[in-house]
Amino acid sequence: MPGRGGRIFGKRGINELGDESGDINEPVDGKSIKSAIPLGLLSEGEEGIIIAHRCGRGLRRRLLELGFTPSSRVRVVSSFPGLIVDIKGSRIALGRGVAMKIIVSLNSGGGKDDN
Amino acid sequence: MIIKVALIGNPNVGKTAIFNALTGSRQHVGNWPGVTVEKKEGRCTHRGAEMEVVDLPGIYSLTASSIDERIARNYIIKERPDVVVDIVDASNIERNLYLTLLLLELEANLIVALNMMDIAASKGYEFDTEKLSLLLGVPVIPTVATTHFGIRELKDAIIEAASGKNKRRKVTIGYGEDLETEIRRIEEMIMEDPHLSGTYPPRWLAIKILERDEEVIGILERYQKKDVLEVVGWEK
Ligand SMILES: Nc1nc2c(ncn2[C@@H]2O[C@H](COP(=O)(O)OP(=O)(O)OP(=O)(O)O)[C@@H](O)[C@H]2O)c(=O)[nH]1
Ligand SMILES: [Mg+2]
User: Fold this and answer.
1) Which DSSP helix (H) or strand (E) runs through B29?
2) Which of A20, B67, B156, B199 is surrounded by the fewest CB atoms within 10 Å?
3) Predicted complex: ipTM over 0.85
4) Chain segment B167-197, per-residue pLDDT in tens
5) Can you tell me which atom of ligand 1 is nearest the CA of B12?
6) CATH number for the domain whose boundaries are B177-231
7) Using N-to-C axis directions, what is the helix angle for B177-191 and B202-210, rounded to 10°?
């Protein structure tokens, strides 16, 4: 993804393209993280700022395409029976397992929200 | 000559509303071959030109990871519509423009319909559509599908784009020095096959192969471009 996604792919060499292992991304912007928790643990109405994807590159790519880019604000619209989140003005349904792989910070402020 | 027009865009941005505004009652609904996803086609005549319009499923990206994305992408790549109208929700532009960039990379003959302008206005958003058009290198037409605002201008733009006469700037999305070196290298290998590079945009193929896009890997296997597949360490 061009633009902000560049931080994730930018410095990776070509040799790493084959790497399918589930590496843990470095937190973006090198900020210290006060309360980093999986998105899947947020309750209805709670908001977080995306700081990392804890998964392999296939899923990470899909998440980026759906708008789960680093520094984006994400809000849990409903959490039962399935998880529905609001991200960049769209409501997206997530499996619980996937939601556990998106790490968010509960620190308010500093997030990037387009609307 | 019938102008083939495809409508594409994120879910819920007003594609069907634009489709209805363009085609009125001259439409029919079927299925995409082999799947139960609805296919809407319609026709209209504008300034003596006949257009055939297809309403594609709503998608966020153009990978082949869902049936809707596969339908939309295959339609753009294989059917080669004369004009692709990318419907962008003006009230949610950041998310929407990602798909626009993917369509630019696919080198589609693109027009952006900046829809939901009424909702954007109620949120206090203002647009410099000329600047946006300049940055994207494609025409940008503000619309409100539900009131038919901008539909005539959209039809005019479609006819002009189909004539191939509009002067547009070719916009390339850069990926930084490291990746650009690899993209160029693969592009050159692709250019060695005139049929391959005449069928698909070489830069698009190069980027997708670096993304290890399964369909593009399939294309390169069919064309037996072993040198390219080796670059990305692809072995059967
Ligand atoms: N206010 C306003 N509403 C619009 C506009 N365009 C479409 N709508 C409404 O937005 C909703 C979604 O429009 P659709 O045309 O169904 O959107 P779509 O892109 O076809 O949706 P999918 O096919 O589900 O992806 C409908 O309720 C439309 O009436 C617009 O320009 N302004
Ligand atoms: Mg629709």
Assistant:
1) strand B27-31
2) A20
3) no
4) 677 899 999 999 999 999 999 999 999 999 9
5) 21
6) 1.10.287.1770
7) 120
